[in-house]
Structures are given as structure tokens and as C-alpha cells.
What does this fold into?
Amino acid sequence: MATKGKQQSTARSSAPGKSTAPAKKRRPSPAVYRRRRQVVFGGLLLVLALIVVAVVSIGGAMGGQPGPQAVSTTEPSQVPSQGSVPSGTASPSASPTPVCDFNLMTVAAKTDKPAYGPEEKPLLTMTITNGGTAPCEVNVGTSQMEYLVMSGADRIFSSKDCQAGSEDLIKTIQPGKSETANFPWQRNRTLEGCGAINAKPGGGGAYYTFEARLGNKASPKAVFQLN
It folds into this structure.
């Protein structure tokens, strides 16, 4: 009887559907592993990016390095080949002529005759000469010229006393060359400011002097005689 009971017990334990062994755990699919790896990789990238930004910000604050500066570049100028003329370029103008140095200028006075008869009128001539070594410009207009006639200390005549108007006249004088200007004197007297005067210069062999002036430059006196 005991043996029969053991056989029945063994039979019950080995019967199908009655096994007591634990069931195997189900593994995740490959798609789940891929998603997990992507999440982990994305998180690592985000952490690395934050670390890089923090390092750059700290380095910039500590270093104080200025930002980039603009650099200007200049293209090399083009040199025209021999015989060519650059378009739109004016030809070089001649250098301006300098003003004459009055220390190198001479002013001379002369009359056309040494003596004049009672009806003759003296011709007074002023000569300006460039004593320098280069051409120069000088104002030879009536604004600068004066023809002065004296009799001893007596002021007889000046071309400026009754001058209606004065003008500038710029002339270029070459080295060693001269400019001349003539003035026919009417044998009359004048006063400064062109005041009225009836007296006339005396004749009868009286001597007079003529002085030519250009600005502050005066000539030696030329002597002539009125008969």
C-alpha cells in the first residue's frame, strides 16, 4: 500500500501542466536598445556642449582679449608703361613763377633828352631789370609806379597826385631782362590830393631831377634841363 501511494505521488508530480520551475524573463527588443543608446548619447552631447560654453565664457572673461579688428588693404598702384598716358589724369602743370626779390631788382630813371626847349615836353622812362638767375613775376601796374620830378627840395610833380585810377599789371621778367614804361610829362605842377595850382615849372635853363619808383624801390635820380 505504501509503495502504491508513492507511485501515485510521483505520478502527480510528473503530470503535464503541473511543473513548478520558474518561467524565463523576456529580453527587450533591439529597437528598445537603440532608443536607449540614442537617449544616452544625446545626453552626453548636451553635457559636453554645456562644458565647452562654460570654458569659453570663463576664458574670455579672464583673458580680456579684444574682439577682431577690421584690417584695411590697399591695392598696389598701377604704374603706366612707358609711352602710355593714364586716362583721366591731367598732365602736370608747370611750377608757378616766383615773385621777384626786390633785392635783386633794379629800377632806373632816364629822360629822352638831357635838355628841352620851351615848347618841348620831356619823356620820362622807368626801367625795371631782373638781376636774379631765374624768371620772376613783378607788379608793374600804375598801382606801384610813380614818376616824381623835383627841383632841389621842391616837389614839382608826381604821377600819383591826380591819377584817376590805379591798376595792377603782373609781368614775368626773365633773368637779365627788363621792362620799360614811359610817361610824357606835360611840364605841369601837381599837389598831393590833386589840389588846384596855377604855377608852372620855371624854364630858362633850370635843372630838375626825375626819380622812378616801383613800390618801395626807388631809382637813382636822372638830371635834365628845361629852357
Q: What stands out?
A: Residues 30-63 form the longest helix (34 residues). The CA atoms of residues 190 and 197 lie 7 Å apart. Confidence is low (pLDDT under 50) at residues 1-19, 59-91. Residues 102-226 form a domain with the Immunoglobulin-like fold (CATH 2.60.40.10).
